[in-house]
Amino acid sequence: MTIQLPCACANLRRADRVVTRYYDAMLRPSGVHATQFTLLQALTLASEVSQKKLAELLEIDSTTLTRTLAPLRSKGWLRAKAGADRRELRLSLTAAGKREYQRALPYWQRAQKGLEKALGKDTWNQLMETAVRTAYAFNTTRPDEPFATSS
Fold first, then answer.
1. Is 113:31 a contact under the CB 8 Å cutoff?
2. pTM of the predicted model as reported, rounded to 2 decimal places
3. Could you give the CA distance from residue 69 to residue 42 in angstroms, rounded to a whole number?
4. Which of 12, 39, 63, 77 has the fewest CB atoms within 10 Å of its CB?
5. Is the Cα dihedral 19, 25, 26, 32 positive or negative?
């Protein structure tokens, strides 16, 4: 039995751990972890992105992002090149990285559908919207902007 803790942070972190374990289990046959899939997906959607922008997109500090990118780089899935400013690092997937993303995609899609089924369509939609709104509302790069509302 799960109880509602009085702390939003504790409840969100618990949900994060449970959902991450679920996605890791669903992705296990592909050999890709949920954290790695997130990076493959983000780099598929935002190719040639700077490492700084990727960190902002995923709300990950640069040290954690560098550590999480390392296995992708060592497997030959990631290309990094200097940007216009030589201090800037531009990231993209290699052909092998794109193939790996496509190979893992069906496992991720099953995880998505399984979570949606477990929660129900309405709760699923609320969860997706609330997760995005929560990240936006508390984004440290925009502390003075009001809570985002959907139109």
1. no
2. 0.85
3. 12
4. 63
5. positive
